[in-house]
DNA sequence: CGATTGACCGAAG
DNA sequence: CCTTCGGCCAATC
């Protein structure tokens, strides 16, 4: 039988795959991922996906920020592995919950892949 | 099952 | 520059 919502699960897998493909020291945005997986209008779901899987499995969600390069979801991270710390460990400058050279570090899956 | 919320985006005023 | 609104869809209450 054909389930009309072939999304949901497939969607999550794509998101996770893409996030795990983010190169070291690079970042991307929810919107970029959303577009890449074919859910440009459901960019919010990216956050859900990460919330459900990141923390549960090892997903570099710290490399995913909003379109402004702001660490929107830093509050959802475990305190031991705060987003800023992880980014800083990769040489990414974070100032006031925002990636300084976001424009340079931005990695668009649609372009790079 | 209806209403609310949310790690978002973009346009309009 | 800041606020408001619409959209989109899943999870939670």
Task: Report what the structure shows.
The protein has 113 residues and is mainly alpha-helical. Helices cover 41% and strands 4% of the residues. A two-stranded parallel sheet has the order 1-2. It is globular, with a radius of gyration of 14 Å. The chain starts with 8 loop residues before the first helix and ends with a helix. The relative contact order is 0.19. Mean pLDDT is 89; it is low at 1-5. The chain binds a DNA duplex (13 and 13 nucleotides) through α2, α3 and β2.
SSE layout:
Blueprint lengths: L8 H12 L7 E2 H8 L5 H11 L10 E2 L17 H7 L12 H4 L3 H4 L1
The chain binds a DNA duplex (13 and 13 nucleotides) through helix 2, helix 3 and strand 2.
In the predicted model, the low-confidence regions spanning at least 5 consecutive residues are 1-5
The description of the largest β-sheet is: 2 strands, parallel
Instruction: Tell me the Rg in angstroms.
Output: 14 Å
Major sheet: arrangement of strands = 1-2
Q: What's a quick, concise take on this entry?
A:
The protein is mainly α and 113 residues long.
